[in-house]
User: Fold this.
Amino acid sequence: MQFAHNVFPESTSVDVDGSLSIDGVTVVDVVNKYSTPVIIYSEKDLVNATDQFVEVFDRVLYASKAAPITGIERIIFARGAGCAVASAGELEVALRAGCDPSKIVMHGNNKSDEDIARALSVHLSRLVVEDEHECDRVEKIAHELGVSEVEVQLRITPGIEADTHAYLMTGGLDSKFGSAIHGGAAGRVCDRIISSDILVLKGLHCHIGTQITDTEPLTRAARVIVDFYVGLQKKYAAQDIDLFVNEISVGGGFGIHYQPDDDVPMPVDLAKAVRATVHEVCDQNGIQDLEVWAEPGRGIVGRAGFTAYRVGSIKEIPGVKTYIAVDGGMGDNIRPAMYDAQHLSWVNGRNGDAGTHDVAIAGKLCESGDILSRKVELPVDVAVDDILCMASTGAYSFAMASNYNLLTRPAVVLVGQNVEGGMCEVVRRETMDEMLSRIV
Assistant:
């Protein structure tokens, strides 16, 4: 059975018996110390992925919703990236991880007053506003806080649908996010901002979805947003109005491999294609000094993390299916149930020499839909107590984890040569008392 290197961290190695190590630290050592389930991240992969994006874009803002973990973010920020947050909670994690507020932007289609007030109070770089109503609220809160100027980006909806799961699309006309170019909403919000004594329009933002695996929709969206910017320039120049926009954010959505044979460009290659398109359109219109920003999340942390489970039972239904049940499930990885995500798995210490067969990997939660993999090739000699490693779970596993069935949430462990002792917890395993403490 061939090990799929392109879905596990680049720093992963496998020995002749099928046992995995990450940057020299064995999975068995991690599990023996931190138990299972456990989400394991490679420090080396986080560094390399961040560096690749930083080399392409003028500003990289890590989309922290993918994995809002202080210990992970410290590594990313140390490589020169900033942060894109979607709540006061994500903002707090970024600040505790040492991110300079001048390198943080805040998103959200319905930010609370508390979100906006916290963002203004720490003087973050940009608020990404969605519509005229939000402009009103930001101005009101700025007045109350004595803030005289708020630099904003406008999130526009380009009317482009990415080839991804319907729940992951955000750039189509029928979207809860942003102001649509079609119908003139985006133009009206720009007029609203330009007329404000407090709001300063510094940039345009566009994000069409996530886990995008084709350059075409990304480059098309980039072209649309720059064309819209060119139109704004001409419109306001004709009215003798100064336009201070000097940045375009192309968002994120850069897809990764979940299966070894996925036809997916490397995230950095998707990024380069987007950047090249922006430059092409700018050159065609004589535009200079327009910064290109991006907000990768999954593209940085997705492949860098995987989850180790313990096999608890094996159920064979002759002529139908074999279920391998593990000690986690949709409580620590909701993506298979929500998005029909397909993760590849590897059984630690089983190299497949005894043969392989297709099985389903079942979670332990009380839902028929708690199936982590409906069909995956595993060795026929898988046994109870084996360690099963599920690849590419670094994005949205911790972030979307729940206490369904009142299961405690797993630990998150960082592994690397620069980590003291080779490995350390960046999120403690939740205890029963912690989980129940809010129930009164």
